[in-house]
Structure prediction request, 379 residues.
Amino acid sequence: MIKNIKLYLFLNIALCIITVFIIAVYPPPQTVSSILTIDKTRVKQADWERQDCLGVQCELCPFRCFLSEGSRGICRVRMNVAGRLRTLVYGQPVSVHIDPIEKKPVYHMLPGSRIFSIATVGCNLRCNFCQNWEISQRNPEETREGDKILTPEQVVEAAIANNCNSIAYTYSEPIVFYEYVLDIARLAKQKGLRNVLVSAGYVNREPLKKLAPYFDVIKIDLKGFNEQFYRKVVGGDLKYVLSTLKELHKLGVLTEVVNLVVPGLNDDMQEIDRMCKWIYDNLGPDTPLFFSRFSPQYKLGNLPATPIETLEKARKIAMDIGLRYVYIGNIAGHPGENTLCPSCGKMLVRRYGYTILENNIKKGRCIFCGREIPGIWDN
Ligand code: SF4
Prediction:
């Protein structure tokens, strides 16, 4: 009996030693060991940390990366430093611009207005067609040199000084610079500015619920409607993005959806039909939806640009299902850029690319028939 207990204890201890050895030599597959030097004065405590006996876990997004000492998450910008979860990009934007709001694209908030737009490096997804891969797929160390810190106060001051009435968190994936977004957004609200989040929606429910009240519009990239496509080309699971969309609808946040149509990968019309029906049933007919044109780039430089007819077919499917505001993106001058009144059919907002040629919405209503149009139309 005693012999058996001893053997049992011996086997358990041996198993523990082997496990620790394996973790030390081969970090868990979802993490990336830090091979670059971190400037420890530029890291900040991150939210959504869960302590574990073998390290920390990040609970910000569905990957829930487990991070042993010195390793960082899939997003490259959250790391276990001295046993705590740290963000490596707080206050360190690598892209700061003033854009027309139509460039986001956001069509149902203050047409023609200027929006102060910022991004740090990092993303938790790996889209093969990423338009901003130079910043989204980089480590902070690769772009940091010479960069200046921009505090939330300075971002808000700069937005006001440049006559912007809103701030966009955009270009890369703002969820991964969550703490910075939240601090700026809170301050911006206090100063009377509006906030727009442009995201792929790959975030857990609790962090989303904390962020949402500060946002006037959230733009979600719904990259397709096929689990396999999401796993292979995007690097995530579709079901989490759909949960985000449902949660935003429940929270009452004005949400616009964009679908970049990539030839041969997500342009199946039956799939688009299922996606539009899902949007209609779960988010409602007033949800603005964009079908945007893909241009060959990043890992998909071999594919052609999306044919205009494909976008037109997709738009027709969405409108036949009953979605009221369906747009075509990335084709300046296409009639699918305009907002028409669903009741009287008259032109509400006429656009040419990022330029507003006509705006017939007053106090949130069509000036011709008085129908209420969902959105934020007056500052
Ligand atoms: S935010 Fe980054 S570190 Fe956190 S779970 Fe997602 S990928 Fe991992």
